[in-house]
Amino acid sequence: MKILIIRLSSIGDIIQCMSVVTGLKNKFPDAEIHWVVRADMESLVKIDPRINTIWSFDRKEGFAGVFKLGSKLKKQKFDLIYDAHSNIRSNILKLLLCPFGLCNVIGKTKLITRHKDRLKRLLLFKFGINLLPKPFKALDSFRHPLKKWAVTEFNTPFEDWNFPKETEDKIADLVLNQIPEGQKWISLVPSAAWELKRWPVNYWQQLVTIRKNLHFVVLGGPGDAFCEDIKNAAPDRVINLAGKTSLMESFCTVWHSPYVISGDTGFLHAADLFQKPGQAIIGPTAFGYPSNPKMKIMEVDLPCRPCTKDGSTKCKIKEERKCIMDISPRMVAKTIDV
């Protein structure tokens, strides 16, 4: 049996979609799994050795490149096709592989598509009418369509993630060999693409100060200068990796982490995929909830939330970012279980 997964981007969505591989392998243990992904995202998919073949395409090739790829895929004669993206490019591929969905009726190939509930999203973010699942767990949204193929068992632990050797070596040097023997440590993810969903820097500093028995590793990008302020709260117990690691190296750090605390970020989704214990600090966004039962949800119940898809909008109440500000450092510190 040959199965094709189509998920082209983005980082967080690819990570979430990767959770379906376990379910597919549980249901079809001998299946050959193929994945279509954008070329600049290919390295993410490569960490799962259960994916036999990766088909990547370069956006620079335009739609001509999509048609060219589709002709190659058609020769593979897939038994099952899962469109986990549902955009223009994936629709072109579906048209070539299963014209107008007719393969589900008259062909051997079976096709399913993950739909994005665009109408429900419009109602939520424009009119405040929430008809989406509460809470909305993105990993589950990728898994749910597979019930049509009787794929339901997704939580089997998987430990054989295949990070490049140079990545493993670098994280050993920067983190694993720096933590004193016998000391417990936690990964912190204080950054986020949008300010609206960021837990305040001084809250992270207070958290580090309160839990004096723990060491911390701070993950962030080269522009996240505030991560150094968090380190300065306890320089002897905090390692600041902001700007020092690539995206892949940061994901590797999450994989090795005994515990992860993060807002609605790609690193939270990685911790969810890796089934790591930790805490998800959820503020105004609608789609950041983890599915992993070992990940505790830190949130406050307010009638105005969720109010945004990704944090790119402005707060709608006078007491700005109340949904984030009311999650105190002491609440988070008290909930840590590592």
Produce the secondary structure layout.
Layout lengths: L1 E5 L4 H7 L2 H8 L4 E7 L3 H4 L7 E5 L4 H13 L5 E4 L4 H10 L5 H4 L3 E4 L4 H10 L10 H6 L21 H12 L8 E5 L11 H10 L4 E4 L7 H6 L6 E3 L6 H10 L3 E3 L3 H8 L4 E4 L13 E4 L23 H4 L3 H7 L3
Parallel strand pairs: 1-2, 1-4, 2-3, 4-5, 6-7, 6-9, 7-8, 9-10, 10-11
Helix pairs in contact: 1-13, 4-5, 9-12, 10-15
Task: Report on the architecture of this protein.
With 338 residues, this protein is of the alpha/beta class. The chain has 2 domains: 2-149, Rossmann fold; 165-335, Rossmann fold (3-Layer(aba) Sandwich), CATH 3.40.50.2000. It is built from 15 helices and 11 strands. It is globular, with a radius of gyration of 21 Å.
A few lines on this structure:
Helix content is 35%, strand content 14%. It contains 15 helices and 11 strands. The strands form 2 sheets. It has a 6-stranded parallel sheet, sandwiched between helices. Strands 3-2-1-4-5 form a 5-stranded parallel sheet.
Strand order of the largest sheet: 8-7-6-9-10-11
What's the alpha carbon Rg, rounded to whole Å?
A: 21 Å
Total separate domains: 2
Q: Give the SSE string.
A: EHHEHEHEHHEHHHEHEHEHEHEEHH
The CATH homologous superfamily of the largest domain is named Glycogen Phosphorylase B
Shape: globular
Distance between the termini: 42 Å
* Topology-level CATH name of the largest domain: Rossmann fold
CATH architecture of the largest domain: 3-Layer(aba) Sandwich
Helix percent band: 25-40%
Contiguous helical run count: 15
Could you describe the largest sheet, including whether it forms a barrel? 6 strands, parallel
CATH class of the largest domain: Alpha Beta
Averaging pLDDT over every residue, what do you get? Answer: 95
Model regions low in confidence, pLDDT < 50 over at least 5 residues: none
